[in-house]
Design a protein that fits this description.
214 residues, alpha/beta, nine-stranded parallel beta sheet, 9 strands
């Protein structure tokens, strides 16, 4: 099967739909995909999250990367995998969650903030790492961590990223590969048009920041 989402060649933005309900999942999914997103994550602390994930996997899963965030335990990972999802994102390091996901053919991005967590995650087979909250590390912390990681390590910054060039460019300049986008992209109280505008602005800002990288 062809890769649904390749952060090295696709726009490396993961939409985080915290709080979404199943009744809204397909409509919002279409808005994001039509705007250029190829990866969507539903945090498991959203209402009936597994149902939303299952609906989107059936609708989009053959071409796009659909999955779950806030996957904190092996049991939750198994439930996510059972939906057919191929993306697992965690706020923490769990060797068992990483191995379950990778064995099931998922892309797995565990949340880390320290070199120990990062190297443990990579040793367990993680697809890459999620620097969360990236505001805790700051640019200098990210740069220091990147300096000791294997060069090929995929790093996503999550937390406090806005749809502006100057929000993304400093991270791209120090080697961040992509971003997970939460409340500044989607929240349940936004209209469809607001979600669409946010999505298009994120894509535009990333492309501009990436062109100006370095």
């Amino acid at each position: 099967m062809t890769q649904r989402f390749n952060p090295k060649t696709d726009v490396p933005l993961i939409a985080i739909l915290r709080g979404i309900e199943p009744k809204d999942a397909l409509r919002v999914g279409h808005i994001l995909i039509d705007s250029g997103f190829k990866a969507i994550e539903v945090p498991l602390n959203s209402p009936d999250a597994l149902k939303s994930i299952e609906l989107m996997v059936k609708e989009f899963g053959n071409q796009y990367l659909i999955g779950a965030g806030t996957v904190t335990t092996p049991e939750l990972a198994k439930q996510v995998i059972a939906t057919g999802a191929k993306l697992i994102v965690t706020p923490n390091y769990s060797e068992d969650v990483i191995k379950l996901g990778i064995e099931a053919g998922c892309q797995v991005y565990p949340g880390v903030v320290t070199p120990t967590e990062a190297f443990n995650a990579l040793e367990a087979g993680a697809s890459g790492i999620k620097l969360f909250p990236v505001t805790l590390l700051g640019n200098s912390g990210v740069k220091a961590l990147k300096s000791v990681l294997p060069k090929e390590t995929l790093c996503f910054a999550v937390g406090g990223i806005n749809p502006e060039v100057n929000s993304m460019k400093p991270y791209l300049d120090i080697g961040i590969d992509g971003f997970g986008l939460g409340a500044s992209l989607y929240s349940p109280d936004l209209s469809d048009e607001e979600i669409r505008q946010n999505a298009q602005m994120f894509i535009k800002s990333y492309n501009e920041a990436n062109l100006k990288e370095g």
